[in-house]
Sequence to fold (124 residues):
Amino acid sequence: QVQLVESGGGSAQPGGSLRLSCATSKSSLDLYAIGWVRQAPGREREGISCISSSEGNIYYADSVKGRFTISRDTAKNTISLQMNSLKPENTAVYYCATWGFYCTEPTGYEYEHWGQGTQVTVSS
Fold:
C-alpha cells in the first residue's frame, strides 16, 4: 500500500514562501516518480512538479518554473516542494501523488496514488 502524507501548508502573503513535505515509504520513494498536483476552486487540476526515483528527471510546469523547487530526502523518505515568490493564484489544495515511473508533462492520467492534500492560501 502506498501512503503519501502531506504537511506544511498554510497561509502566506504575496511574495512569501512556504515549504510542503510529503512523507512516504522507502519502497515508494525507490519505485515511483512522485510529485505535486494542485486543485484550486473553479480551476482545472494542475500537475506542477515531479521528481523521479533516481532524481535524474525533474518536471516543472511553466506556471511555477523558477519559483518552486522540488527535492527528495532519502534519509527521511520525503519529497519536498519549496515555494517562493508566492502569488494569490497559487492558492489551492496541494496534493502529493505518484506520477508513474518517469516525470513527463502530465496528461492527467499519471496519478495513481494520492495524499490527503494540504491547503495553501496566498493573500494579503
Notes: The longest helix spans residues 26-31. The chain has a mean pLDDT of 95. The longest strand covers residues 92-98. The chain has one helix and ten strands.
